């Protein structure tokens, strides 16, 4: 059975979302769309001068994927809050897997509110982001 916001219980997992591989073109397009032209993300010479081996993905690009995981599952209208913390960089060529698990379910103002623990991981298991979403479930009985 597919878990939905209306049926979700503590411990249920959201269907994972995979994003990537992240290419240099992806970073250039994201820089243009977001207005974040920090050269650490798009200029190899700059990144190397800063002590990095290569450019790496914008943190907000990865954060957007966690938001996408939550809204693909619940819909934009049910998302009440989204918070994240960056824990590692996402290198060029990486594939991210975003996951979510319901950690809390309670009633608030006559509505069911779900807390969903979110995370993004690289293929080697490195966690690049962790976060939390508050999602509105169904009306309380």
From TrEMBL:
Protein name: (3R)-hydroxyacyl-ACP dehydratase subunit HadB
GO molecular function list: fatty acid synthase activity
Organism the protein comes from: Shimia marina
Pfam family, one: MaoC_dehydratas
Membrane spanning residue stretches: none
InterPro entries membership: Fatty_acid_synthase, HotDog_dom_sf, MaoC-like_dom
Domain MaoC-like per the UniProt entry, residue ranges: 21-106
Example GO biological process: fatty acid biosynthetic process
Domain of life: Bacteria
GO CC terms: fatty acid synthase complex
């Amino acid at each position: 059975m597919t878990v939905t916001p209306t049926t979700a219980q503590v411990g249920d997992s959201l269907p994972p979302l995979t994003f990537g591989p992240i290419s240099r073109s992806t970073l250039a397009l994201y820089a243009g769309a977001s207005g974040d032209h920090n050269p650490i993300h798009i200029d190899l010479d700059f990144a190397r001068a800063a002590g990095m081996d290569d450019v790496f993905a914008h943190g907000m690009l990865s954060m957007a994927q966690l938001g996408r995981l939550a809204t693909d599952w619940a819909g934009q209208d049910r998302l009440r809050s989204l918070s994240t913390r960056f824990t590692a960089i996402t290198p060029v060529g990486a594939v991210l897997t975003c996951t979510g698990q319901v950690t809390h379910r309670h009633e608030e103002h006559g509505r069911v509110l779900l807390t969903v623990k979110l995370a993004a991981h690289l293929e080697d298991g490195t966690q690049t982001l962790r976060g939390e979403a508050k999602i509105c479930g169904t009306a309380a009985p």
